[in-house]
């Protein structure tokens, strides 16, 4: 009887998504009298039954294998509930910095708590988001994904949910695995070995060690038709058009000449201070001589725009080494000690377009400038030239791509004791975790002194075609490139935590359980510049401000499970958090940046089973989250330039508008923290049901709703330039080190948003079909977003949304994401066919990132603001054939993106330097073949 109840409980709990794979173990020697207590992600209480139920997805090692993924980031990207994470392609000219993350509900990585064996790791930044590159796929036993807010249990960073990677344990064999993937023009490979010894039950100990290495080659933009150029021809409303995403930092270079303005009467125009107003005349000397821009460039008035997209890569190369060790030893019958240790090294090399010089001054009296610039000027401009007013912009193509190596080295160790005392389970642990990330500039960044001496002397003609430069001249430019460490970020985490749980009462309906616990965390985040950055030796780049941030936090929680009726259970959680003030040891004067904050959060959930097959569940809870240390305390730092060129915004105050560029160009960007940021709070609820039959069929639906207040965001560049009156304080100026001129720049500080609303439905259908020759298991699952909107920073009535379109945040919240997974087994063969689909959406207006013209006349401009494409549904299929050879060997052949589906064409260019497709939402590799072999002995 007990066996039947346990078996049914396990089956139901798996269908409900609530069970750890190691949930139950019957003790045969004790005649099935003892059942092991288990703990499920989302609860701190160990129990001997499975009456609780939470919206949890469980993905075990076999599911991971069938999916065909090769890394944890790939696994995360495959999940329908994941939106808003950082993808690898964003490190190519975007903000990825070699990091990849997880994000539930499109809220962002900071709201999704990532755990390894239930423990936090050092973050990838100053908050709580984890670089999931550091988690070894080969060591994963299963992944538990709690798709419900859990702040009342885990703390302030679990508003969107929890992703818990459970790694292998009690391993007593050795498994070697190898895999090779081959899309066209690139490749990747994976190798891992996992071994263990000692039987915890008979020997009293177990040690498991796992090592893996992954290698990924880069993929260049010119290797894919959809990504090879920033000059993209397309059809719209019966017109053949071209969308041009170029840069005024061109090769051959552009020249700019300042001259004094005159009115119709020929008199000089004066400003309010009685000074003569100036204007700028732009030209491309190569175009003046040859009658057209170079083949690598497009016209932009009298100047030209360089096709920088053709020079970069769309996916970076990387290597990943992971070493994981887990040891467990029995101290007594009721106590065991454990140690979990891991180390990883992730290296990514990114190559973006050659260096854009920005404007730099030239001597108008030099023969070089006279021959190449002055000779092409109109007489009126030549007559009224401003002294010292000649400058140029050049693309340093001979110096090669800007090539950066991002190296992330992480270490993580957890040591603890767990067991039972008087039928109360306990677990006490200390965690020490750290991550160091170095950015090394390999080449492509000019040394200011050497480079400027070279290009201003005329030894290298910056106005000539690149093919006309001699090998010697190209080498002269290459010799001026910087190589060395640029900066280092260090994050460290020290955590002490403990919890205990047990039964406190017996009611007619069952046992009442109580769990209590505490945690203390000390977090630090520092940024240290390399010697080259501090010396400001790279062309026109200033040294950033170093900082060393630290704060402590602690919390305590209680959880109680009460069986109200035999088939109705209520769970309540209550937690108190205090997030300490941030200190910066490198800040002069007062090193304390802000005040500490605290709050109490709660959650109530219930599960009701009217029948053995049907589960009804619901929850309501609150959340609390302090802003990250960088959002609060980071000093003003340079953050590159705007992703798109902008005209001087209409309505900008005249005292700032005078510093606008004369042409449509990119502007410098700063980012900084805000010490007065308020904590974010949330209210959220879920309700749904799951039905599970006895034939492997189940289906379920869960509605979820999250309302946040004081959410921390940064205004996008489009929002700032689109409303210069409201955001006047975000426009500032800086001195252009190339020309000495004062120019306009913008600031993107962290700000509190008044309110945001997100809601949706998670659903799944699972069924099994038996044939005479095999068994087919199918799973259809998806996430449907109903609402995703937020108040714009600084407003009380302007709501922004990216639901089903490219929003003002330059991102997309997909209405539908659906996976359909099928596995057919017959004999020793297993076939898997998996479908992944994302719904279509409305694209960004063409004029946001592009200059649009007639395809047969690039000087004939078209109003890009009225052009909005519809991006169709993006769907890919993956196939895998696996063969089990005996009990020890397995072989697999697979095809990812079976039908070689290309990314859809898009006019949104906000994710990085890629143009024509979005690397966040589509597969750039195309059809990929792979082979895999595993052997266990």
TrEMBL record:
Q: Identify the main location.
A: membrane
- Pfam families with a match to the protein in the record: Plug (PF07715), TonB_dep_Rec_b-barrel (PF00593)
Q: Which residues form the signal peptide?
A: 1-25
Where in this chain does the record put each TonB-dependent receptor-like beta-barrel domain? 481-898
Q: From the Swiss-Prot or TrEMBL record, state where the protein is found.
A: Cell outer membrane
Give the highest taxon in the source lineage. Bacteria
TonB-dependent receptor plug domain residues are 54-162
InterPro entries xrefs = Beta-barrel_TonB (IPR000531), Beta-barrel_TonB_sf (IPR036942), Plug_dom (IPR012910), Plug_dom_sf (IPR037066), TonB-dep_rcpt-like (IPR039426)
Indicate how the chain sits in the lipid bilayer: Multi-pass membrane protein
CDD domains attached to this UniProt entry: ligand_gated_channel (cd01347)
Is Transferase among this UniProt entry's keywords?
no
Give the family per the record. Answer: Belongs to the TonB-dependent receptor family.
Query: In its UniProt entry, what is this protein called?
Result: TonB-dependent receptor
Q: Which organism is it from?
A: Pseudoalteromonas rubra
Task: List the top taxonomic levels of the source.
Answer: Bacteria, Pseudomonadati, Pseudomonadota, Gammaproteobacteria, Alteromonadales
